[in-house]
Amino acid sequence: MRILEVGKNKKQYMELLFLADEQEDMIDKYIKRGTMFILDDNGVKSECVVTDEGKGILEIKNIATIPNFQGMGYGKILIDFVVAKYKNQFLTLQVGTGDSPATIGFYERCGFSRSHIIKNFFIDNYDHPIYEDGIQLVHMIYLRRTL
Question: How far, in Å, CA of 93 to CA of 40, rounded?
């Protein structure tokens, strides 16, 4: 298993990026300025895109694992990698996600705590309703952990 930084042709991973963010114009807002990592374990299993948000905050903008490989620890391995890589460069790692119990629980198990909410984020920024586990996402829930 290895984790590689993708410097060029990040959009070759669009199918994987769409698992975490369904709308291409939303991905376009961060893909160029973000740093992308892929986890390769006999083929790409997961990806993560992080951005410098200023004031010592590094943000996970997109993290996704191929569905057949979810629940096998690949997402946590990527988060642990990001934490180790950036712990001396940033103060905080944050992630914004929909209010889905499974996703929130995943981040909490990875050491994140709820920080703040952006009301109506998914309604105001997406051109169609977004659902996760049968729940329509409305508000963006931010979680943070200290690096």
Answer: 23
Count of other CB atoms within 10 angstroms of residue 103: 18
Strand pairing of 57-65 and 92-98?
parallel
State the Cα–Cα distance between residues 1 and 140, nearest whole angstrom.
32
pTM of the model: 0.95
Note the helical H segments in the chain: 14-20, 24-28, 74-86, 101-109, 121-125
| Span 136-145, pLDDT tens digits | 999 999 999 9
Q: Quote the CA–CA distance of 51 and 43 in Å, as a whole number.
A: 25
pLDDT in tens, 69-117: 999 999 999 999 999 999 999 999 999 999 999 899 999 999 999 999 9
Which tokens belong to 85? 């890589």
Q: What dihedral do alpha carbons 86, 83, 143, 30 form, nearest 10°?
A: 50
Closest CA to 78 of 88, 87, 89, 65: 65
Closest by CA position to 94, among listed 62, 63, 50, 59:
59
Q: Within 13 Å and on the Cβ side, how many CA atoms surround 105? A: 4
C-alpha 63/C-alpha 45 separation (Å) is: 11
